[in-house]
């Protein structure tokens, strides 16, 4: 089992910045991917960014150039630095852990609200 705990959400004005953190604990496989998804009210959950254990990254087009994902493998922690935030970035942000053997694990989510 893998447990994920997110932190760092909150209320910010448009143009501002936030940093989300997700700490993973439990049975962490060395080859994995961790990432962030978000779900806006009335919409489906969507990928924001992900990073593999080899530090390969992938971003949604809507956040490229504004968000940066990084990880500290020694701490099993992934970060999402969000800058130039827009009201459409509002939503619940979920941390995700994936490995080939067991599949997906999810955190409980942290709310990000961007006011105009």
The multimeric state of the shown protein is single chain
Instruction: Give helix % range.
Output: under 10%
Instruction: Choose one word for the global shape.
Output: globular
Structural class: mainly beta
Give the N-terminus to C-terminus distance in angstroms.
40 Å
Instruction: Give average pLDDT, whole number.
Output: 96
Low-confidence stretches: none
Strand runs, count: 11
Account of the protein in words:
With 116 residues, the chain is mainly β. 0% of the residues lie in helices and 58% in strands. It contains no helices and 11 strands. Strands 2, 4, 5, 6, 9, 10 and 11 form a 7-stranded mixed β-sheet that branches. A hairpin with a 4-residue loop joins strand 7 and strand 8. The radius of gyration is 13 Å and the shape is globular. The N and C termini lie far apart (40 Å). 31% of the residues are buried.
Brief characterization of the structure:
31% of the residues are buried.
Helices and strands in order:
Blueprint: E1 2-7, E2 10-13, E3 18-26, E4 33-39, E5 46-52, E6 57-59, E7 67-72, E8 77-82, E9 91-99, E10 103-106, E11 110-115
Parallel strand pairs: 2-11
Antiparallel strand pairs: 1-3, 3-8, 4-5, 4-9, 5-6, 7-8, 9-10, 9-11
Provide keyphrases for this structure.
116 residues; mainly beta; 4-stranded antiparallel β-sheet
């Amino acid at each position: 089992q893998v447990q994920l705990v997110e932190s760092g959400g909150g209320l910010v004005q448009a143009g501002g910045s936030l940093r989300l953190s997700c700490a993973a604990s439990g049975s962490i496989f060395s080859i994995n991917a961790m990432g962030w998804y978000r779900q806006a009210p009335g919409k489906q959950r969507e990928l924001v960014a992900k990073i593999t254990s080899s530090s390969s990254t992938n971003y949604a087009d809507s956040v490229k150039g504004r968000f940066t994902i990084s990880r500290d493998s020694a701490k099993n922690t992934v970060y999402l630095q969000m800058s130039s935030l827009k009201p459409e970035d509002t939503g619940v942000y979920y941390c995700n852990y994936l490995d080939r053997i067991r599949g997906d694990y999810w955190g409980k989510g942290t709310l990000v609200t961007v006011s105009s």
